[in-house]
Design brief:
InterPro entries: Cro/C1-type_HTH, Lambda_DNA-bd_dom_sf, TPR-like_helical_dom_sf. This is HTH cro/C1-type domain-containing protein. GO terms for molecular function: DNA binding. The chain is an all-alpha fold and about 400 residues long. It folds into four domains: about 80 residues, lambda repressor-like DNA-binding domains (434 Repressor (Amino-terminal Domain)); about 120 residues, no CATH class; about 70 residues, no CATH class; about 90 residues, no CATH class. It is globular, with a radius of gyration of 23 Å.
Length: about 400
């Protein structure tokens, strides 16, 4: 007899929608448990329990609700709550939860500072774009002081200087763009809380300016960071909000980037079908882009970058036969002047090669990545090096891998 039919049906639906068998779900739950340090029974016993839950015979007991929520990347209250209640938070709820308290952009009473015009805003915008170009070549630690000094100056001008309404709106856009690159730089430096606060400041500025494309880009940037460092389910929800905020009339490059970030969040959740759908939408969006419509901050979004994300998604989903050829093609286009990006892409190639049972080539590629990133002031490359080397540890009996760990003892 089924005691919990609604819950059983919901668990079954979530599993089947991801293309998982009960055994695959058990494997995913076990992986989540291992990450959390939770002991688990034998896999066959867990598969049997999943069958009982899906048939509604029993309700999962602790710690399984938590583990299932993480495995499905779904909020606990959504997965195990009342099925008659709304199952997802609205975009407004999600946005309200992430916005900073107070208003850091509120003017300081009657503005008594100097009056500024369009030329001042243009100068600030040029400096922000200069930071973007510098970020192509330098690590976060090298740029973070400059980035936040520029952002602080723009915020002070908005709050203190006198300006026409149109100039104020343009200045808000510059603040939003500055917050995006400053947040990205802070994230690259490993200062994730500071990055999140900065992205939220930018979201406020973009919304005040009425710039939906910029607001979406900032939401997507925050979602991307959360996907890499926090709750992947929250990241996917926020990436969806970024798409909804943007609307269908935004530039193709902007929509492509938003879809790419959603694809990554889905991949981090283990949702292969969702990731593949999002990648397809990203390519469709980019194909419809007209360069003259795109803001300057999207200069780097092009077909090659979509290939990079596609390869990363395949790597994250452990599909090396698709990931390796894509990464090899992409890496052929990069030179050492873009050292951080080259190092990051090499790290994903190492993982894909290891998944393809090619430890010798993986070790050679890893050595190249470590040499390239040795002098980079980027926490992102440091973290990827740890992931890469961690993946190679299971091959330590292979000569090339053993030599790699002997050459790089501090990173092993």
């Amino acid at each position: 007899m089924s005691k919990f039919p609604a819950l059983g049906a919901r668990l079954t639906r979530e599993r089947v929608s991801r293309g998982w068998s009960q055994r695959q779900l058990a494997k995913k739950v076990s992986e989540v448990a291992a990450e959390m340090g939770v002991s688990m029974p034998e896999r066959t016993s867990l598969v049997k329990s999943i069958g009982n839950w899906e048939h509604g015979r029993y309700r999962p007991r602790d710690p399984y609700p938590m583990l299932l929520s993480h495995a499905f990347c779904i909020d606990h209250d959504v997965l195990f709550g009342d099925p008659l209640m709304p199952s997802l938070r609205s975009p407004a709820d999600i946005l309200a939860a992430i916005m900073p308290e107070g208003d850091p952009l509120a003017p300081l009473g009657a503005r008594s500072g100097r009056r500024i015009g369009p030329s001042t805003v243009s100068d600030l915008a040029a400096r922000v774009h200069g930071l973007r170009l510098a970020d192509d070549l330098l690590g976060g630690d090298d740029l973070i002081d400059t980035a936040f000094r520029e952002l602080g100056a723009a915020v002070r001008l908005y709050r203190e200087a006198a300006h026409a309404e149109e100039v104020g709106r343009a200045l808000l856009t510059v603040i939003g763009e500055g917050a995006q690159i400053a947040g990205w730089i802070a994230s690259d430096a490993g200062r994730h809380e500071e990055a999140a606060r900065t992205y939220k400041l930018g979201i406020s500025a973009a919304r005040e300016a009425g710039d939906q494309t910029l607001e979406s880009n900032l939401l997507g940037s925050l979602a991307y960071q959360i996907a890499n460092t926090g709750d992947t389910g929250e990241a996917a929800a926020l990436a969806l909000v970024a798409l909804e905020v943007m609307g269908s009339h935004s530039p193709g490059r902007a929509r492509a980037l938003a879809w790419d970030r959603l694809a990554w969040a889905h991949a981090r959740c283990g949702d292969a079908q969702g990731a593949m759908r999002a990648l397809g939408e990203a390519n469709v969006a980019l194909a419809g882009d007209r360069d003259e419509e795109s803001p300057p901050y999207l200069y780097w979004v092009e077909a090659g970058e979509l290939q990079v994300m596609e390869a990363r998604v395949y790597t994250e989903l452990h599909r090396p036969l698709r990931a390796v050829p894509l990464l090899t093609t992409v890496l052929a286009r990069y030179d050492a002047t873009h050292a951080r990006e080259l190092a990051l892409y090499l790290s994903w190639l190492v993982v894909a090669l290891a998944d393809a049972n090619e430890p010798e080539e993986a070790a050679r590629t890893a050595a190249r990545m470590l040499d390239l990133s040795a002098d980079l002031a980027s926490e992102r490359t440091t973290q990827r090096a740890r992931v890469m080397l961690g993946r190679l540890k299971s091959y330590r009996d292979v000569l090339e891998v053993r030599d790699l760990f002997s050459r790089y003892p501090l990173t092993a």
